[in-house]
Amino acid sequence: MPSRAGFHNPAKSLPERGLLLLMVLLFLEVSVRPLGVACSQDTNHHHQDQHSGNATFVKKAFPVLSLDYNHIKAPFEVSLWVLLASLMKLGFHLVPRLSGIVPESCLLITVGLLVGGLIKLAGEEVPPVLDSRLFFLCLLPPIILDAGYFLPIRPFMENLGTILMFAVVGTLWNAFFIGGLLYAVCQIQPANPSILHQLELLPCLLFGSIVSAVDPVAVLAVFEEIHINELLHILVFGESLLNDAVTVVLYHLFEEYSGVGTVTVMDGFLGIISFLVVACGGVLVGALYGILAAFTSRFTSHTRVIEPLFVFVYSYMAYLSAEMFHLSGIMALIACGAVMRPYVEANISHKSHTTIKYFLKMWSSVSETLIFIFLGVATVDGKHAWNWTFVTVTVVLCLVARVMGVVGLTFVINKFRIVKLTTKDQFIVAYGGLRGAIAFSLGFLLDERHFPMRGMFLTAIITVIFFTVFVQGMTIKPLVELLAVKKKQEAKRSINEEIHTQFLDHLLTGIEDICGHYGHHHWKDKLNRFNKKYVKKCLIAGERSKEPQLIAFYHKMEMKQAIELVESGGGIKLPSALPSTVSMQNIQPKKPPPPKPVERALPQLPKGREEEIRKILRSNLQRTRQRLRSYNRHTLVADPYEDGLGDLLIKKQKMIELEKKIKDMNNYLTVPAAASDSPTMRRARLASGSDTDFKPAQQQKGNTICPDPQAYNMKPQSDSVPTIQVDLASPQSPDSVNLMDEFRKAKQQEDDEQGLMMKPPSGPNKPGEAGEPREQKLIRCLSDPGPSADEEEDEPFLP
Amino acid sequence: MGSNSSSMNNIPNAEQLVQETGFSAAHILRLYERFQFLDKDDTGQLRPEDFGAVRELAMNPIGDRIISAFFSPGQETLDFASFVRVLAHFRPADSNRTRDGAQPEPANSSMRKLKFAFQLYDQDRDGKISRAELLQVLRAMLGMQVTEEQLQSIAERAIQEADFDQDDAISFDEFRKSLEKVNIDHKMSIRFLS
């Protein structure tokens, strides 16, 4: 996210922020206080009217302006909270140093504490915001769906064994260790009976199971900011997702039987079966809905607008269906997102891609913010029963259990792994086991009658959450730096890497077959074949089902580059009817000597032409399979400029080739056209039939060209005039016009004669400051960010 | 599986192979059983046709290249020692082996693994992957699904990206550089051979 500190003077912004905050809090006050009064007044009114019946109405002055808060109370309060959350988010990024030191989650909890404190000070009752139903049904699903949809499948699958071990065995170990030792601690000091002695074993175990689960929300919030390498990220994150099944089973098991007081072996056995049912059932439900969503998306070519809706609704229903059967909703959601993604991506339009991406990020961002704020508010509220022994022992035990669990499990796991986990890795995994709002909500769900110690439990849970989020969350970043843990690599996959990786996959599969070993590669290969042969045909519309992964990847790269060419240079010279004096003389030979930047003088492009180019590029964008990246929520738009000399050279080559191809009146862009169309293109052609945008440009040249939008190739009408048939896939956005204008204006200042000087970025690095504001405008002008520089996850379901 | 009289005594030069390749005795035994399974006419040597018994290899786009990689150029037959030596490339790397300069580079080091893969591309063994060779591989992998023009474009772009010394071919160093982000030890290892 471009830092806006450069635009605002920080000193000036603080009073603004304070004022804003004050206003918001005042609103809260106003909203809460007249609630009681307004409520009674309205009901009185209604009763009066009803009782009067047929009698004449009491005549009173016509109310010109009246306040009826109750009418809008619920949505208003919700909106107010959301607004508060979003304003907080804005505020944190205005103070740049703060967000560097303190992770956002801590700041948000603090804000929640403040708000809760203010409300309490005002004498009002704090609204029970972290109601479990609200949490589990509204706040949690967007975050999980976001995580599941953008889950990097390949590292997840490669480390699945490790992840499952940590999730299942680790959580079980944590739960029993904490629960058991807590019970033991509570039972000591028999001479001094305290309330702790009333604590039975089973409630202790229940407490242990609640507090032992690593929380995905907290992990996401903290890990997103520290950018560690992919392996560690997926280990901790995957664990936090998959331990939901264990938590659900343990929770229900202990809750059921706490009343009875004993758990037999039979119950334990049933618990294990229940775990399998919960986990596999959740995944199955999710996969089923995912396939339904993929199948539905096959037919959406005529109603593109509601495509994102299908994705969201099917996923949410998967979650709700799983929750209905008390299966693991989180696993259902993850399975749904992961299963549907490759097929849906192949079917839907580019704009729908962008919509889904943005909506998911937006919802999950707001959700996460709200959760942390509510945690703070709920801390202020609520009956707390502070018990020094209990709380401190809990915190200590959590830490100890986590460390022991991780170390022990790693020792076992390393025997089976090719890439072993080092001590540093183990430390990060142990340290990253943060607890969060799920633990709190589960505790909140406990029935007071069955668990008289509920207050104490909640206090302890909150303390653990605070400790992990604040202490561990704040210190993990400097620790990562200190230990020099490998950071996330800027993954810019080259075509070579893609080709060679596929080649190596085939090679390994072949070697495995020769050895007769049915290993990892063998099954992956089989799954791929099955996918290609049967599944893709059902779930992907039209011709896209046959497109191999490498081709789609290649197209995407070409598109990226073409867009960048346009953006960096402002346009490409097109031969016009008149012989041009300048251009062709400057064309360099096919292999330019490295690494001189090329300066070419191009005649000015008429405005219509540039728009055509933009449109062509946009329409071609829709042809290619857009792969979504798992974006960091803070940086949704990446810099379109790529550093690297190699790319520079390639860009030059492409430019030259483009010119040559235009000259030969072949396909317009270097992307060779496939023999048949995707349904997207077909629809685009039909839609652009009567479009008049490209007519003015043609009329400029005064040619009589039969406006045949069907043709993708240029038809030689007169001797050397190429006609460009534009296939519009997206309606002309006014922004692109501004874009070109801006470019031209900026460039004209530097130019002398005809030039649209095609000044490529000088040197391997990004051009200097002059380029920056333009880029910013660029970024905002584009109605959707095109495919940008780096690429984290670009593989379909089966890599 | 073990009903044959497979014991270490039957395997020629067993200890030497253990020493050379780093496989354990159990692995050598297992590989020997596999070798015997493939060697249908029991000559103690494998020929390219024997690999046809492995059905999945026929479906593999680069199956024939892999088979020919086992045989040194000019050789028609393959004995057990060579079989094992080739497979030694795919053993997971030993993290705790300290390398002293006197020892030759082990077969399962990253460099040797990459070299093996490189030779699969570079059929004429001139040390470079030429455009034609790259096209052959692409054609094999992508098959009938793409047009010739698309293949040419991809090959063109691949060479442009990787070729730093502008000789229109990819040398081994350039190959290695383009794979620097990939964990070769992980990618080119088969677990059971550890």
Termini distance of chain B? 21 Å
**Largest chain interface and its two residue counts?**
A-B, 53 and 56 residues
| Overall body shape of chain B | globular
How many domain units of chain B? 2
- Given the C-alpha coordinates, what overall shape of chain A results? globular
Main features:
heterodimer, A: 799 residues, mainly alpha, two-stranded antiparallel ribbon, 28 helices, disordered N terminus, B: 194 residues, Recoverin, domain 1, 2 domains, 10 helices, 2 strands, 48% helix, globular
Describe the structure.
- Chain B: GO terms for molecular function: calcium ion binding.
- Chain B: One of its GO terms (biological process) is protein transport.
- The complex is a heterodimer of chains A (799) and B (194).
- Chain A is mostly helical and 799 residues long.
- Chain A contains 28 helices and two strands.
- Chain A has a two-stranded antiparallel sheet.
- In chain A, helix 1 (10-32) runs antiparallel to helix 3 (69-94), helix 5 (104-121) crosses helix 15 and helix 9 runs antiparallel to helix 11.
- The longest helix of chain A has 33 residues, at 265-297.
- Chain A starts with 9 loop residues before the first helix and ends in an 18-residue tail after the last helix.
- Chain B is mostly helical and 194 residues long.
- In chain B, 48% of the residues lie in helices and 3% in strands.
- Chain B contains ten helices and two strands, in the order ααααααβααβαα.
- A two-stranded antiparallel sheet of chain B has the order 1-2.
- In chain B, helix 7 (131-142) packs across helix 8.
- The longest helix of chain B is centred in the C-terminal third of the chain and has 15 residues, at 148-162.
